[in-house]
Amino acid sequence: MRASLVLLVWAVLAVPLSARAQDTSASVERYKQCDAATKGKHLTDEQYRVYMGSCLASEGPPRDPFESARSIEKRCNTVANERQLSGQDRVLFMQTCRTKG
Question: Would you list the DSSP string of 26-86?
């Protein structure tokens, strides 16, 4: 009886631990991707912190820390065209794309 109770408790606790390990490895991988995008850019500490905060918060691939507003607009338009967005859907997408990168 005790052995089955111990086994049940272990099984319940083991699932969340494995899920957390996968989540942690994904966030570590994301951090490495964002950090790799800053190599060779000669950012100050403040610029690095701001870039890493925005990069880690976004879901897309890391973008260039010095990407201009014009190139962001072009990239967002390209994605909107690929998704064939129009009207209010396009407006909402463009707003979020510009701010999140």
Answer: HHHHHHHHHHHHHTTS---HHHHHHHHHHHHH--S----TT--HHHHHHHHHHHHHHTT--
Q: Rounded to two decimals, what is the model's pTM?
A: 0.44
Q: How far is CA 67 from CA 13, 39, 45, 72, 92, in A?
A: 45, 14, 18, 7, 21
Structure tokens at 24: 């942690």
Q: How far is CA 16 from CA 3, 11, 25, 31, in A?
A: 21, 9, 14, 22
Q: Which pLDDT tens digit goes with each residue over 74-84?
A: 889 999 999 99
Q: Which residues contact 57 (CB under 8 A, 6 or more apart)?
A: 100
